[in-house]
Specification:
Elements: E1 4-7, H1 14-27, E2 31-34, H2 45-55, E3 58-59, H3 63-68, H4 79-91, H5 94-102, E4 106-109, E5 114-117, H6 133-139, E6 147-150, E7 157-161, E8 167-170, E9 173-175, E10 181-185, E11 199-205, E12 208-214, H7 218-228, H8 232-240
Parallel strand pairs: 1-2, 2-3, 5-6, 6-10
Antiparallel strand pairs: 1-11, 4-5, 7-8, 7-10, 9-12, 11-12
The structure holds zinc ion.
Zinc ion binds near residues 11, 37 and 152.
Length: about 240
């Protein structure tokens, strides 16, 4: 079994990304997997794509990547997200926009019996959120593997389904049991929304899955966002993790 650090929702926050990658060096994993939303909200889209392509073995597309690449409409985006995507499109290099267009929506890692997606296994392109027990129950039917990693809601958790159909939510660490299946939300590197402003990622190593948190220089990211003229709502939310 290989070990992995799973990161998601970087959202052009280079300070958070670099801090998380430095932390991951201590985890000593075989590879880093990225679940999508490299851009949108934050001030350094090109830089984040370059760092991600240099560090992650697999990269998926998120809804903000697709929107920045002009592949999906922004009807579900709030005005701040929309403004940030417009800013991102103007700022990004043509090469990186072309790169975003090519990213897949899902991936499988057979060796570890893992399925990867940004939003949900059921309808990856509909960008639904997997939040409640009911959502988990439905989505377990839409992948065959033991464990699915996803992101999108920026709220990390580990859902465990027992063979009898019991569903349990964990928030920090879980042992992978032989007869159970799992859905893990890796949280967000660049814009956490669970009330904890620290960057989040998931670590799968040995027989455990863990949600890890890392504090980074939020003030520096906010400074760069202000300089870029990004909406103040997006700047302020980083400090509260909402
Ligand atoms: Zn996101």
């Amino acid at each position: 079994m290989s070990s992995f650090a799973i990161i998601s929702d970087v959202h052009a926050n280079l300070e958070a990304l670099n801090t998380v990658l430095r932390k991951i060096e201590e985890d000593n994993v075989d590879a880093i997997l990225f679940l999508g939303d490299s851009v949108g909200y934050g001030p350094e889209p090109d830089e984040c794509i370059e760092v991600l392509t240099g560090s992650a073995k697999i990269l998926l597309a998120g809804n903000h990547d697709r929107a920045a690449a002009g592949l999906s409409d922004m009807s579900s985006f709030n005005p701040y997200a929309k403004a940030a995507i417009e800013w991102t499109r103007d700022k990004m290099s043509k090469e990186n926009i072309a790169f975003l267009k090519e990213l897949p929506l899902t991936a499988e890692i057979n060796e570890n019996d893992m399925f990867l997606v940004h939003s949900t296994p059921k309808e990856p392109e509909q960008w639904h959120y997997l939040t409640f027990e009911h959502d988990a129950r439905v989505n377990f039917k839409y992948f065959e593997q033991i464990i699915c990693f996803l992101g999108h809601s920026h709220i990390p958790f580990i859902v465990e389904a027992s063979p009898g159909g019991n569903i349990r939510f964990h928030y920090r660490l879980t042992e992978i049991k032989d007869n159970c299946r799992y859905i893990v939300n890796a949280g967000s590197v660049g814009q956490p929304r669970d009330g904890n402003p620290d960057a989040a990622y998931a670590l799968m190593k040995g027989n455990t899955v863990e949600i890890k948190r890392v504090s980074y220089d939020i003030v520096l990211t906010q400074k760069k966002m202000r300089k870029a003229g990004l909406p103040s709502y997006l700047i302020e939310r980083l400090a509260v993790g909402r």
